[in-house]
Amino acid sequence: MEISDVDLNSEDFKEILKLYLVESQPYKGFSDDYSNMYKDDRVKNFIKSDLSRSDFSTSFVSKREGPLFFLFCKKDITKNSLQIIFPFPNTKLVNITSFTRWPFAFCHLMLDQLERSGLDRAYGTIERKNKKSNYEKALIRFGHKMFEIQDIEGERFKKVVIKKENLIEAHKKLSRLYKKYEK
Q1: What is the DSSP string of 65-112?
Q2: What is the model's pLDDT at position 131?
Q3: Band of the pLDDT at 96, cuts 50, 70, 90?
């Protein structure tokens, strides 16, 4: 396993991102009902408007399978935290072990980005338009207590707060599971 910087211009990365956005549909405009040209344009715009503003763009790479998970974060100096822009798994690699490996990969990437930034906490908002309650349930189920989900007063979104000490504990537990599947 290793951590690698993401090349936003890579065609392989764009295909993985498009597949995730079409299958998961966290936002409107990503569906098999649209043409490939339209989806390609949406992906390029998403990269330009959202992902390119990240200070940290990394992927967790398995020696056997390639990138398992991607994480994009931006330093927020006013809140002394990392702002999570967009995390997502490589859905090309879905199999029975994915739900064990993805939480570990996210945890590993988040710890790395916190270390590199010199910060000890991160936050993000759950801004999904589709399958929102299922996503929240998955976060709680597979989150291994690495983060808290909080309501934001007056907003329809919820906030995810991650503390470094919780990540360290989750990382210890998840690394044992991950190592079993990488053998």
Answers
A1: TEEEEEEEEEEETTTTEEEEEEEEE-GGG-STTHHHHHHHHHHHHHHH
A2: 59
A3: low
**Whole-number Å distance between alpha carbons of 133 and 93:** 24
Query: How distant is the alpha carbon of residue 180 from its chain centre?
Result: 23
Enumerate the H helices of the chain as residue ranges: 11-24, 36-49, 98-117, 132-142, 164-182
Rounded Cα distance between 127 and 124, Å, is 9
Both tokens of 1, joined, read 């396993």
pLDDT at 63: 82
111: Cβ contacts below 8 Å, ≥ 6 apart: 164, 167, 168, 171
Q: Using CA of residue 17, residue 42, residue 81, residue 118, what is the dihedral sign?
A: positive
Residue 146: per-residue pLDDT: 79
CB atoms inside a 10 Å sphere around CB 125 = 13
Contact 67, 59 (CB under 8 A): yes
- Between strands 121-126 and 81-89, the pairing is parallel
Average pLDDT on 114-137 reads 78
* pLDDT attached to residue 109: 95
Residue 53 gets which letter from DSSP?
Answer: G
